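General statements about sequence and structure are easier to judge against a single worked case. No coordinates are needed to read the tokens, only the vocabulary itself. The sequence in question and its structure tokens are set out directly beneath this paragraph.
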Amino acid sequence: MKNNRPSKRIAVVGGGLAGCEAAWQLAERGVAVDLWEMRPLVTTAAHVTGNLAELVCSNSLGGDQGVSPAAALKDEMRLFGSLVLEVAEAARVAAGSALAVDRERFSQAVTDRIVAHRLITVHRQLVTSLPAGPAIIATGPLTHADLSQALVEYFGDAPLSFFDAAAPIVFGETIDLASAFWGSREGGTDYINCPLSRAEYETFYQALLTAEEHPRHDFEETRYFEGCLPIEELARRGPKTPLFGPLKPIGLQNPGEGGRRPYAVVQLRRDNAAGSLWSLVGFQTNLRWGEQKRVFSLIPALARAEFARYGVMHRNTYLKSPRILTPSLATRKRPDLWLAGQMIGVEGYMESAAAGIVSGVNAARWTYGREPLVLPRETMLGALLHYVTHADPDRFQPMNATFGLFELPPELIGVKDKNTRRRWFKDRGVARLVAMLADSGERVARHAEHG
């Protein structure tokens, strides 16, 4: 719902996915935005460019077809006119049922769209204190130490943290395609599959167990996020664990072996549109770079692979949001201060961007003196934000979009088929959100059903 007369200016601190979505939602509703981003003046342990919305881990934004939780969340985000999804679909690379993007083209396009908006002014400057006026803080899990300390002092609760990691990327021309095969568990040919025999897997597994890691210094007590475990941590949980994770062979047949299923498979996903870069799916790691080269070269198809980027690990911080936030993502202490993104305890690119949407919409509604939106718990995003703002703060941990956030309604009692239940939840969420947006006077963006 656009308004051609800018009202109060609102500051958005942080130019990641959440900050860009928040700024976009505000500007599209006629509110002038000052978007503050510290890069490239000040960088982080994970970023490599100065672009807005840089993807620092995987280039996959999760499932986009069928009835997965990620697809359900995206359907709801499209109703708000998500900038991130619109740009991602234009920068898509083949990845089966997942929405994966050419990361450089994606971040450059988001940057271009934000900079070009007549109501958004981008400031390349470090912010170390909470803005005095209305603002959205969306600085992410790598928030600068000074601003993090300002948040701690204001809210009176030290942030929590967990480890996150990125997988290595190899140059496509150095992959031994004679030792690999094309295929996808969904039936296409979008992935390069690197098979291992049982003996090759056991050699690889033992090398993982003994490989040297980067020191973690003062992070020893920090937890891992279960959805993004380093490959070496998976290996430490037992020899079969990686075979049920990133090396699972289920759904893949090697035509070079008479169509038989390999003992283990490492999948490579296209990282750019040209196909010159490929990432190791699920291989986030904290191994020393020399060890990554040594260990991952034990995968036959990667024996001579050259690495465009080695995997890295960093600490992600987040706040005890149940003590800090209302369901509209405004803070309890200041109704003109909103938080968004991974710093509030949502985990994942799309979850972060979706939180940015809600903060932006509600900041705009506050500007015009309207009641904030509290999304229904029957929606995927509403259920996620309810968890973030209502969980036990002393046991609070990051959360992805998941159907486990929903209570089982009477309509589904006795329904055994998982996909039937998921479709019901997904359709209900979209219907409830469409009705709420219409009732609240918000424009409902074009909704394209994906799968």
Summary: The CA atoms of residues 298 and 383 lie 43 Å apart. The first strand starts at residue 10 and ends at 13.
